[in-house]
Amino acid sequence: MPTIADLKLQLDDAITLSLISSAFTEASAAGLQKIKKQFEINQQFYDEISHVYHLVRASGERLQLDKKITPLEKKIVSVAMTSNQRFYGNLNVNVMRGYLEEIEKQKTDVMVIGLTGSDFMKSSGFVKPYSTMMFEKDSPTTQEVQKFLDATVQYDSILVYFPKFVSLVTQTVGVIDITQTISPTDQTPEEEIHILFEPEYSKILEFFKRQVRNLLLMRVLLEASLSRTSARLITMSSAEERADALIKETKGQLRKIQLSIANTRLLETFAGIGKWKKKKKKKYEEELLTN
Q: Which among 85, 32, 95, 92 is positioned nearest to 237, based on CA atoms?
C-alpha cells in the first residue's frame, strides 16, 4: 500500500503532467487554426498549378507519340515523409506501415525522410536498399527542400507518402506524385493537350521540374504539418484527460489514507480515555478499601 509521501509525490507529478499537457494542447490548437487557414487559402492554387503541370506532362507524352519515340522505362522513387519528433500518436507508424505495404507491389527506389521513419525501417527488417534524408526540423528549410529536389530530379515519378489531413480526429496515409506523371488510365481532354510551347518544351519541362515540384512538395509539407498538429492536439488532450483522472484517483487514495489515520488516532484516543477511566476507577476503589 502506498504511503502518504508516495501519494503526494505522485500527485505532484500528475499535476505537472496536466499543466504541461494543457499548455501543449493550447499551443497545438492555436497552431492548428493557423496552419489550416493557410492550407485552405493555398489549396486552390496548388490544385491549379498541379493541373497545369499535368497538362505539360500530357503534352510531352503526346509529342513523344507523334514523333514515334519509344519512351524509356520511367524511374520511380517512393518517399516516406515522417517526423523527427514522436509526439503524434501512431501517425508516423501508420504512414510507414502503409508505405511498406505499397512499395512491395511496385518497382521503385526507396527513400525515407525523418528520424521516426528511419528507425522504423531499421526495426522492420526491410532488406532492400534504401536511402534516408534528415531535416533539422519537421518543417525543412529552403536549402533542405532544394537538397531533396536535387536528389530526386532524375526521377520521372516521385511518389510521396505523407500524413493526410481528413478531420481533426482523423488522419490517413496520403500519396501524391509531385511530378504529376501521366498514367495509362488518365483521360486528358484532347483540346487541352494541343498546346504550343514558348520557349521550347524541354525548357518548359525543366522549369516545372524545379519550380512546380518545389510548390507541390510545399503543399505536401503543409498538409503533413496540419495532420501532425491535429494528431498532437488529440494526443495532448488525451494526456491531459488521463492526468486529470490520475489526479482525481490519487486525491481519493490520499483522502482515504488520511481518513484512516484520523480514525486510527481517534480510536487510540478513545482507547486511552477508556484505560484512563479504568485506572482512575481502580485507584478510587483502592482508596475506599484503604479507608
A: 32
